[in-house]
Design a protein that fits this description.
single chain
């Protein structure tokens, strides 16, 4: 099932309506404003009230520069580049200090970070990004509906989109991506590529389709809609729809065979990858026919993601703190989980649940120590850091100025 990442023929109908959809999406989040596109060099002096979307630098150029940057980093700096941390603060100075003290380059915003006022959020994210040409990578999981971090996101999500035509997903995620960008955030962990018709399933209210084929159409549309504004993430690979249990509290086990996965569950992920999604999030899900380890820690699943689905972007873990919360003694060591994830093929490790002020720093220290001890290959860590740095460079080259609500 090896796939070419050509994108040829992708979304022919959607491409035709995309400019109109983007215009209506911007109107939805910034009433009374139009769309202006100018070179990045001109963007910095623009008045905030003039909405501007500047397309990011191409991934090829970013990858080349990322490689050069990584070459000048020591192992601890490389380790810090692949850890995404979190602390519950709305204070800009405290947020910036957290990143500096832990020596990491990525931050996940949760509800506890989002003030009621959008302008205050922009002040926080500006402080978190920093002033350099390689800003910190900021992410949020803004799915809408059940998982809403931005109180002003009133776009349809989940089941409502599953019951609508794919064009509705494109429109909703164009508007949602604009909100994410307007908040000063580069990455959205927002596109659920799982599919299930089991209404008792934990993930059911969040899926974009009851079956993989229907979900695939809407996942591709959502990815295309969000692309001009935020870096889209598909989740939860290899597919949470095969299990009803909540992976925040246990490590669910799926009975699906690899052959069946390839012909069904994989379809929405393949569609989102073909639509250009730059990130895929691996879930804490066990498919015993493939590996007894959760996909987030499984070399076999990262290999299938790269080789079968042709993914070339950043593979990110779901919150590793969830593994601790599951209570399985095999996953009781946060540092060991991070080392296992990067060693397996993850490029970015996330830790939120149970995270303290120094958790992210301890993960980065542990990754560097694993390289020194020979339990993690330096080449694997460097490869991961280069991919994440390339994303940060892409975000740094992209300016989206939209009036705050």
């Amino acid at each position: 099932m090896r796939r070419a990442r050509s994108g040829a023929g992708r979304g022919a109908v959607r491409r035709g309506v995309l400019p109109l959809v983007l215009a209506s999406a911007l109107a939805a989040v910034a009433p009374g404003y139009g769309v202006a596109v100018k070179p990045a060099s001109a963007a910095s002096g623009l008045d905030e009230q003039e909405p501007v979307a500047v397309v990011a630098a191409g991934p090829g150029a970013a990858a080349e520069r990322a490689s050069a940057l990584a070459a000048g980093m020591d192992v601890r700096e490389l380790a810090g580049a692949v850890v995404m941390g979190h602390v519950a603060t709305r204070d800009p100075d405290a947020g910036a200090a957290y990143l500096a003290e832990n020596r990491i380059g990525a931050f996940l915003l949760m509800g506890a970070n989002v003030p009621a006022d959008e302008r205050e959020l922009r002040t926080l994210t500006a402080s978190l990004r920093g002033d350099g040409a390689v800003p910190a990578l900021l992410a949020i999981d803004e799915e809408g509906g059940v998982v809403t971090r931005l109180p002003w996101d009133h776009q349809p999500a989940g089941g409502e989109l599953a019951a609508s035509e794919p064009a509705a997903s494109l429109t909703a995620f164009a508007a949602r991506g604009a909100l994410v960008a307007r908040a000063g955030i580069g990455v959205n962990f927002g596109v659920v590529a799982d599919a299930t018709g089991d209404t008792t399933s934990f993930i059911a209210p969040r899926v974009l389709g009851a079956d993989p084929a229907a979900a695939a159409e809407r996942v591709a549309a959502a990815t295309e809609g969000e692309a001009p504004f935020a870096l889209t993430t598909l989740k939860h690979f290899p597919g949470h729809g095969q299990v009803a249990a909540d992976s925040h509290h246990t490590v669910p086990v799926a009975g699906q065979s690899l052959a069946d996965w390839r012909s069904s569950t994989a379809l929405p992920f393949a569609a989102g990858i073909d639509a250009g999604a730059p990130l895929v999030m691996s879930g804490h899900l066990v498919y015993p026919e493939v590996d007894d380890a959760p996909a987030s820690l499984s070399p076999a699943w990262y290999r299938l993601l790269r080789e079968d689905l042709g993914f070339r972007g950043v593979a990110v873990t779901d919150d590793l703190g969830m593994l601790l919360a599951a209570g399985d003694p095999r996953y009781a060591d946060a540092v060991a989980n991070a080392v296992a994830a990067v060693g397996a093929g993850a490029d970015l490790v996330v830790h939120v649940v149970g995270s303290g002020p120094d958790t992210a720093g301890r993960l980065a220290d542990g990754l560097a120590a694993a390289v020194a001890e020979g339990t993690l290959a330096e080449g694997r860590l460097r490869e991961a850091a280069e991919r994440v740095l390339a994303l940060r460079l892409q975000v740094g080259a992209q300016t989206v100025l939209l009036p705050a609500g």
